[in-house]
Amino acid sequence: QVQLVESGGGLVQAGDSLRLSCAASGRMFSSYRVGWFRQAPGKEREFVARINWSGGSPLYADSVKGRFTIFRDNTKTVYLQMSSLKPEDTAVYFCAAKLSPTGNYEYWGQGTQVTVSS
C-alpha cells in the first residue's frame, strides 16, 4: 500500500515561488510514476506534471511548462517547484502515483491549497 502526503501549500503573491512536497510511504518501485494534479474551484481536476519514480522522464502541462519543475531527491519525496506563479495557478494540488506508465493513477494524497493573489 502506498500513501502520499502533500505539504508546502500556502498564500503567495503573483510572481512568487513555492515548493510543494509529496512524501511517499510504502514500497515504491522504479516503474512507478508520480504526478501532480490540481483542481480549481468549479473546474475539473487537471494534470500538471509527472515523473518516473526513478527521477526521469518529466512531463509538464503546457500551462506550467517553463515555470514549474518536478523532481525527486534521495528520500521518498517528489517535489513541485513552482515559480512565476499566477492567480490562475490557484487550486488544490494533489500528488498521485500509479504502478506503471499506463493505466490510471491509483494512489492519491489529500491535497494542499495554493492561493496566488494578484
3D architecture notes:
The structure is a single chain. The protein starts with a strand and ends with a strand. The chain is an all-beta fold. Helix content is 0%, strand content 51%. It is built from no helices and 11 strands. The mean pLDDT is 94. Strands 2, 4, 5, 6, 9, 10 and 11 form a 7-stranded mixed beta sheet that branches. A 4-stranded antiparallel beta sheet has the order 1-3-8-7, with no helix packed on it. It has strands at residues 3-7, 10-13, 18-25, 33-39, 46-52, 59-60, 68-72, 77-82, 91-98, 107-108, 112-117.
Outline the fold blueprint.
Layout: E1 3-7, E2 10-13, E3 18-25, E4 33-39, E5 46-52, E6 59-60, E7 68-72, E8 77-82, E9 91-98, E10 107-108, E11 112-117
Chain-averaged pLDDT: 94
Contiguous runs where pLDDT drops below 50 for at least 5 residues? none
Work out the helicity level.
under 10%
Residues in β-strands, percent: over 45%
What class, by secondary structure content?
mainly beta
Categorize the overall geometry.
globular
Rounded to the nearest angstrom, the radius of gyration is 13 Å
What's the oligomerization state?
single chain
Number of strands: 11
Order of helices and strands: EEEEEEEEEEE
H/I helix tally: 0
Described by strand count, sense and barrel closure, the largest sheet is: 7 strands, mixed
Output the keywords.
118 residues, mainly beta, 7-stranded mixed sheet, 4-stranded antiparallel sheet, 11 strands, 51% strand
